[in-house]
Write a structure and sequence with these properties.
single chain, 303 residues, Rossmann fold, binds nicotinamide-adenine-dinucleotide, binds magnesium ion, SDR_fam, SDR family oxidoreductase
């Protein structure tokens, strides 16, 4: 996105100017889940920058929302750190997913593309089984997929939207964690994706913000439950990050020209800036960290 974005995650950089601030050209709208193919400027998911150092050598990972945004950044980082990855995404996102599959293969790792709908319990079970069949097991589950639709008034939130938001963000987490824990050996990790919205709900994101608070509570409870098995469960809570979610109805289109400028760092984050958080929580470097939430939000205060 900028010259500086060509630097990897180890280079000394000024975080306030490392990536651009939004302007009027950022106002855009996509129907459905949205794709990176149609987003401008294109988010930085570390495609040309993320440098791995073998921190996940030989690991077997499942990542949801793997085609775009934060999930894409996590997949690229996991592969460059040495992991094989099963990629979950919606069938309509095939073009984005193809690029990610290619990047994993370029890193010399195995990519298994397995599109489907996380609102469906049987797909969630099949996704974990896919890792067992194709990778020989699962030791990292990164739940990154999510649904976010802005609505001015509670009267505009249909039961259908409410249901879809909870099915995508909460039920799928329950189904995937349940299936994964059955397969996981000691040392395995689960990373769930919450949001600043869990603590600072926007008036226009009532249903979405509720799911993110649930994800925090679910993850802390599950962390305590599976700790004796040697399985760790942690959370990444992003702030405003430039991804397809935001221009596919996640924010009012008009608000995108100001997206992320309210943070102390004064700009939106890029997916590449989330990847090290997922890698840290997936790897043995975080061996004594469980039930924790890692906020990556440009400095917005959290509880
Ligand atoms: P994104 O649109 O790139 O990723 C979301 C992904 O969710 C999609 O690519 C899609 O593959 C997946 N998904 C949605 N519904 C699905 C379904 N029914 N079945 C299967 N997959 C489905 O956007 P992102 O911002 O990278 O989102 C990743 C996560 O980060 C989400 O959980 C989101 O809530 C969270 N988050 C994002 C922000 C932000 O500002 N972008 C802030 C806080 C939290
Ligand atoms: Mg997508």
């Amino acid at each position: 996105m900028t010259d500086q974005a060509n630097l990897d995650q180890y280079s000394l950089q000024d975080p306030t100017t490392q990536y651009p601030k939004p302007d009027d050209s950022w106002k855009q709208y996509q129907k459905g889940a949205g794709t990176e193919q149609e987003q401008h400027p294109k988010p930085d998911a570390g495609e040309t920058t993320y440098r791995g150092t073998g921190r996940l050598t030989g690991r077997k990972a499942v990542v949801t929302g793997a085609d775009s945004g934060i999930g894409r950044a996590a997949v690229i980082a996991f592969a460059r750190e040495g992991a094989d990855v099963v990629l979950s995404y919606l069938p309509e996102e095939e073009e984005d997913a193809k690029e990610v599959v290619q990047l994993v293969e370029q890193a010399g790792r195995k990519a298994v593309a397995f599109p489907g709908d996380l609102k469906d319990e049987s797909y969630c079970e099949a996704l974990i089984q896919k890792a067992v069949d194709e990778l020989g097991g699962i030791d990292i589950l990164a739940n990154v997929a999510g649904k976010q639709q802005t609505q001015e008034s509670i009267e505009d939130i249909t039961t259908e939207q409410f249901d879809e938001t909870f099915k995508t963000n909460v039920y799928s987490l329950f189904w995937l964690c349940k299936a994964a824990v059955k397969q996981m050996q000691p040392g395995s990790t689960i990373i769930n994706t919450s949001s600043i919205q869990a603590y600072e709900p926007s008036p226009t994101l009532v249903d979405y913000a509720s799911t993110k608070a649930q994800i925090n509570a679910f993850s802390k409870g599950l962390a305590g439950q599976v700790a004796p098995k040697g399985i760790r469960v942690n959370v990444v809570a992003p702030g405003p990050i430039w991804t397809p979610l935001q221009q596919a109805g996640g924010q009012p289109t008009e608000a995108l020209s100001e997206f992320g400028v309210q943070t102390p760092l004064g700009r939106p984050g890029q997916p590449a800036e989330l990847a090290p958080a997922y890698v840290f929580l997936a790897s043995a470097e975080s061996s004594y960290v469980t039930g924790e939430t890692l906020n990556v939000n440009g400095g917005m205060p959290t509880p």
